[in-house]
Amino acid sequence: GAVVSQHPSWVICKSGTSVKIECRSLDFQATTMFWYRQFPKQSLMLMATSNEGSKATYEQGVEKDKFLINHASLTLSTLTVTSAHPEDSSFYICSARDQSGGSSPLHFGNGTRLTVT
Amino acid sequence: DAKTTQPNSMESNEEEPVHLPCNHSTISGTDYIHWYRQLPSQGPEYVIHGLTSNVNNRMASLAIAEDRKSSTLILHRATLRDAAVYYCILRDHTGNQFYFGTGTSLTVIP
């Protein structure tokens, strides 16, 4: 089946630094990728939708200058958390689909646990 | 996206069937019903999806009400590895965006 690889699986960084998370579709081309954030014991919250070659669409309340998304190829999207602070500590998950339409399932990465000290 | 309502938690004995309900009374005619599950510290995993007819796959069955305002995910024989949070999600015909509700946390008792 379709595989989405997310890297790193965990990262610890100091407050004020930036962290980049990669999301790759390994055996399919993903025209659209989605980025989620999940706090402990809560559901996934959609942050943004990225389409290959165009600017990402951010959900209301998500700062696009803080969470930079790049989707430069059909197999790679990156999320950069800029000037990270302890409140940005969370579980970040990406997903991708290999075709458009409501019937196509999403394929998820295994998430990146970010801890900002 | 139309909203879904699920019980916060359910329990099942190992090797018994589990019926996980989902209400989606505002579903539109072109919305697909998707189910995903998430194990601790992992990304969600696709389980099954359907539009109008009941669906079966190797993981589960999906029973969709005739008026489509509710659906039930059926795990035929629960195992300890099925303990997870199960999410019922509606996707429109474009497939754009994908919002998660609160999900049902399933506990499987040995």
Characterize this entry briefly:
The complex is a heterodimer of chains A (about 120) and B (about 110). By secondary structure, chain A is mainly β.
Tally of contiguous helical segments of chain B? 0
Low-confidence stretches of chain A: none
**Radius of gyration of chain B, CA atoms, in whole angstroms:** 13 Å
How far from one another are the termini of chain A?
Answer: 37 Å
Shape of chain B: globular
The average pLDDT of chain A is 92
Report the major sheet of chain A.
7 strands, mixed
If helices are DSSP runs of H or I spanning 4 or more residues, what is the number of helices of chain A?
0
Find the count of extended strands of chain B (DSSP E, 2+ residues): 9
The biggest beta sheet of chain B reads: 5 strands, mixed
Q: What percent of residues of chain B are in strands? A: over 45%
Which sequence of strands runs across the widest sheet of chain B? 1-9-8-3-4
Structural class of chain B: mainly beta
Contiguous runs where pLDDT drops below 50 for at least 5 residues of chain B: none
Helix % of chain B is: under 10%
Largest interface: A-B, 27 and 28 residues
Oligomer: heterodimer
Strand content of chain A: over 45%
- Series of secondary-structure elements of chain B, N-terminal to C-terminal: EEEEEEEEE
